[in-house]
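Per reviewer request, we include the raw input and output of the structure prediction for the construct analysed in the revised manuscript.
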Amino acid sequence: MVKGIKKRIKNQSIGDAAISVLTYVFFAAFAFICIYPFYYIFINTISSNELSQKGLIIFLPRELHIQNYLKAIKIPGLLDAAVISVGRTVIGTLLTVGTTAFLGFMFTRETLWCRKFWYRFVIITMYFNAGIIPWFLTMRNLHLTNNFWGYILPAVVSPFYIILAKTFVESIPKELQQAAEIDGAGTMKIFLRVIMPVIKPIMATVAIFAAVGQWNAFQDTLLLMTDDKLYSLQFILYQYINQASSLKQLVNSSSSSAVAQSIATVQTATSIRMTVTILVVAPILLIYPIFQRYFVKGIMIGAVKG
């Protein structure tokens, strides 16, 4: 890759080569700024907790160990919260993607009764928000407090995602649908057999947005859930960051070999915060490589056009 860049620069004029060098330097610095915080947190979780507490771990890990992770997974409630977060992310993403794809398709069908009215009825909710209190009262009246479906149902229909899907479907030649209709295919068959295989890029794009939104959400837990069995991983992280000092004592005292522990592996407030942060952030980072090849295409084609 470096050789290819050098070869490209050699074949350019001095001005173009200077601009290319500055561009590469700028984006390399930008990439470093984006990546370094995650790298910094990670190396502090596998380094001596004493040195980490003193702020001495900057670029390279020292006195490597994995005790922080082994002890973090034993924190009460963490695994249950992980199950809730994975469940809401998987189920919520599947339902959101399916609903978005279907509504995006239906809003392009001229045969849909009052199509323009229903489309505008959905889109107008992007611009008006009643606020937290009416939202909470609505959720309570629907019996979605202390209910796992309180995480899922409010996010199933998203106007922004529907706009992306509708615009993407409109870019598909209508002849495909017309040919299916001539062969006797109904609305659902056209959607499942003709539209869905073609709109995979926008579905992957919506899947990324929906999965990240579900995984990172914690305010709905704060407002709707009082049952600790329904706490999400992000809400647990929020609590642990605020209570890291007391949590370190719980983790250290629960270890069977606490007396014999090396000072390098004794839990500190800093090690608790950073370890739990990595455990919470790492899974969602795996989503991007899976859907990356669809992402740019989905955004470009599904973007709102004038």
